[in-house]
Predict the 3D structure of the following.
Amino acid sequence: MSEAAMQNRLFIPRSCLTTEGNKTGSWRFLRPRYEDKTAPCAAGCPAGEDIPKIEMLTAQGFFKEAWETILQENPFPAVCGRVCFHPCEGSCNRGEYDDSVAVHTLERFLSDTAARYDFRPSFARLPSRKERISVVGAGPAGLAAAWFLTLLGYSCDVFEASPEAGGVLRWGIPAYRLPADALRQDLRRFEREGIRIFTRRPMDRQFFAEAAGRYQAVILACGHGRGQSLSIPGEMEVGVIEGLDFLRMIRASEMAVGGGTEAVIVNGAGCGRSMDTLGEGEAAAEGSEFPGKIGEGALSSFDGLTAVIGGGNTAVDVARSVIRLGGKAVICYRRRRQDMPAFADEVRMALEEGVALEELVSPATAGRDGEEIVLSLRQMIVAGMEGSGRARVIPDGDKMKEVRVRRVIRATGAGPEESWMLPAVEGTKVLALSHCRLVSGEGKLVVVYAGDLANATKSVAHAIASGKEAAIALNALLREGSEAVIPRLQACAVGDGPALSMEVCLGGERRLRSRHIVSYTEINTDHFGFAPRITQPRLLVEERVRSFAEIDLKISAGLAMKEAERCFNCGLCNGCDKCWLYCPDVAVIREGEARRIHYDYCKGCGICVVECPRNAMSLGEGEGEG
Amino acid sequence: MDAEITEREYMHSGHVGCPGCGATIAMRFFLKAMGEKTVLVLPACCWSIIAGSYPQSTLKIPVIHAAFETGGATASGVRAALDMLGDTETTVVTWAGDGGTFDIGFQSLSGAVERNEDFLYVCYDNEAYMNTGIQRSSSTPYGAWTTTTPGREWKKMRKKNIVEALVAHRIPYAATASIAFPEDLLRKAEKAKGIKGSRFLHIYASCPTGWRIPSEMSVKIARMAVQTNIFPLYEVEDGLRYTINHKPRGYLVREYFRHQGRFQHLTDRDLDEIQKMVNEDWELLLRKAGERV
Ligand SMILES: Cc1ncc(C[n+]2csc(CCOP(=O)(O)OP(=O)(O)O)c2C)c(N)n1
Ligand code: SF4
Ligand SMILES: [Mg+2]
C-alpha cells in the first residue's frame, strides 16, 4: 500500500468478543430457583389428588396421563367424577379470580374417556411382599385400602356380604347419580390388579379368630348400614321404612330388572347382618306395597305422598327416588334448608323435581288412619347458632303441625350394624389417626377400623382417604413398627395434611414438591384472562323425574380442554416459559421439557419468580442447587 | 402463545445492565423480531454501556456508537451508505434513550423524519437520564423524583407526548410498546420493519435503579403502566389512523405509584390530580382513535 493510501485509510475499532466472559452471576445476592409447590385444591381433596397436574395434562390433551394421575391417588375416578362433593373446588384459587375450575366435571370426563378408549393404566408398584391382608366390606374405604395395599406389595382378600361389591356406591346411592356400569368400570381394575373380592360373604366376629392364622391384618370397613330409629310413639305400628333399606331395595331391583341373574333380596348389605329381612317394624310397609312390586320391576306404582324424615344426602336420595317411582315426597327436616347436611346442589335439584321441603319440623307421633299415616310434627324455631355454623333449634312452644301421608321413610343418620364394629378405644395399642384407627399388640392380628366406622365426615372421598391412610399406616406398622406410623404419614402429607399422597409414599416425583400451599395472592393473574366456567350439562327436569337414568351428561374433549386451561396450575411448572421470556440476562436455558438457570450469568433480579404465573419458582438467599 | 416468539437470541449473557433492567428486555424482544439484517445506531445512553466496552459486544448485530445528539443524523448517513452499496435488505435502527430522543436528539430526529429517511427509530423510555445518574428529562413524568428534581422540587411538568410529536410529522408509522407485552412489541417491530420511510417505536422500559423499585417488579410495574392507562398501547399509521391495541380494565393509577420509590412523596391529592390527567389523556386518545365523539 502506498504511503498516500495508508494516510487516507480509515481505522474503525471493531469489537471481536462477546460479553460472555463477564460472569455476572457474581453480582447475585438472591437466587431464583424452580420449586414446585402444593396447590390448595390438592390439599383440599381428601384423596390428595394431584389436581394441578391432572388439569395441566388435560389442557394439553394428554387424557390417559391425566387419568393415570387421578388413579395414582384415587382408584375411583368414574365414581368420584359423579358423586364426590368436590371440596377441591371450594379451595380453588381461581374462585377468587372469576369462578373455580370444574374439577369434578373434568374428573368425570377423564373417566368417560378412559372407558371409551379402554385405557389400561400403568402404575408404580412395589415388589410383592409375603404378608396378606384381609378387608371386610367392599365399599369405597375397604376397596381403597385393598388397592393401595396392593400397590405397596401386599396381597389382599376382600369379603363382602352383598352379592356385588361397591358398598354404599352400589346399594346406597341412587342410579341417577351413580349408574352401576360406572361403578363397575372402576371395580374391574381391582380384579385386574389381582385383588380378590369375595361377595355374599357376611362376616361375624368369629372372623377375627379365623383370620389370625391366615392374615397379618384385618381392615374393618363395613360402613354404617343400620339406620337410626325416630324413637317416636307409633313408629313401629305404622311401619316407618328405613331409608337405607329403601334405597338398597331399589338398587337390588335394578339388578333384576336389568336382566341380572342375581337374587333380588339384598337388604343386608353390611357385614355381619342377616340378609333376609328388613329391619324390625318395617314388615307392614313391606307387606303393603313396595318391596315386592319393586322387585317385579313395577317401579311406577309408588303413588301417594311419602314423608321423608332427615336432611342429609340419604333423605334427599330417598325423596328423589320416590318421585322417580311415581310418588310425591316431602322432606321433613328439623332445621332450615341452609343447615341441611345434604349437598346444596342435590337439594336444589330435588326441589326442581317437585320434592317439597318442610323446614323446622320434628316428628312427634305417628298413627294410622285407614290407608293413611297421620304424622304429627313439632314446630321448631331457631334459638341461636352452633359452632359448626348451622342453626340450633328448639321447639316453638307446643305448636304442632300434621301431615297425612301414605308412608314414612326415615333417613336420620346411621350407625354400624353390630357393636363389635365400633372402633376400639382401648387395647394393647390403639392409634387414633385422622381417618382410621389402628389396634395392634404383640403377636396379635392388627385390626384397622376404616371408612364410616372411623371417619367424622361420611363421604366417598373421606372413605378413600381412610383407605389410603389405613394402607400407609399399616405398611409402616408392619415394616418398621408402630413408632414409624406417624412420621410416615407426615412424610406423605399433601401440604399440611391430612390428605395423603400415594405417589409420595411410593417415592414418585411428587415428593420433591414444597409443602407450601400456593395462595391466590401468589398467582400472577396478569397472565390470565376471565373465562366462564363450564356448566355441567344435565337431563331436563322433565326427563329426570321419569326414570333413574343418569342426570349428568358427558362433555366433549374440546370443552374439557378449554375448562382445564382455566386452571392456574398453582405451584406446578407447566412449561409456559414466562421465566425464559422475561429474563433480561438470557440466563434461562431450555433443554427439552426441562428449564435451568445459568447461574454464571443470572444476576438474581427475580423477574422470573414474579412473572411465573403459578408460583412454581422461589427466590431465596443461599446458593443451594437450583 | 409464547411458542410464536423465536428462540433465536441476538443478545449474549454477561452484559452489564443492572439486575432487572427493562431496557435490556426491550432490546432482547426487539431483536428477536428484527433478525440479523439490522444495523444499530446507538447514541449515548445506558445501552452504550450495556452493549459492552471495546472489544466486547453483547449484540450479535453490527452496532455503531454515535454522539448523544445524533441518532437521526447518523442513521440517515448509514442508510445512504447502505443504499450506495445496493443493500436494500438491512434495516437501519436508531436505539436511543428518552434523553437522547425527547431532548438533545430531538432536532436530529425531527430532521430525519421530516425527510422521511428510511429507518426505524426506537426510543426505549426509562423516563430520565439514567446512565449519568437519574437526571430529569422531558420524558420524566409529572410527580417524579430525580436527582435534579429532588425533595419538594419533584417534577411539576407533564411528560412530553413524543408519539404525538412524531405523528405531527405525518410519518408512515408510529407506535408505543411495552416490555410487559412481548407479543404486541414483537408484532409492532415486525410491522415497522416491513414499512418504508421513517418509523418510530416508543418502548416503555422500566429502570429498577432510577425508579427505586425492586428489580423483580420491573416487568410487573411496566405492565401496570399499561393497565392504568398511564402508558397506553397504540399505533398510528400515516399520522392519521389510530388503533388502540389494549383496552385495560381500568386499574387506578394509585396502584402503579404505590410501588415506586420515585413517587413516594406524593399525597392522595397529588394522586387524584394525576388520575385526572391520565383520564384526560386517555379520553383524548379515544377521540383520536374515533372511539369517542
Ligand atoms: C453531548 C453529550 N452530553 C452529555 C453526555 C453524557 N451522557 C451520556 S449518557 C447520558 C444520559 C442519557 O440519557 P437517556 O438518553 O435517557 O438514556 P439512559 O441513560 O436513560 O438509558 C448523558 C447525559 C454525552 N455523552 N454527550
Ligand atoms: S440504570 Fe436503569 S436503564 Fe440503566 S442499565 Fe440500570 S436498570 Fe437498565
Ligand atoms: Mg433515559
Q: What stands out?
A: The first strand of chain A starts at residue 31 and ends at 34. Residues B 97-99, 126, 128-130 surround magnesium ion (ligand 3) (CB under 6 Å). The radius of gyration of chain A is 29 Å.
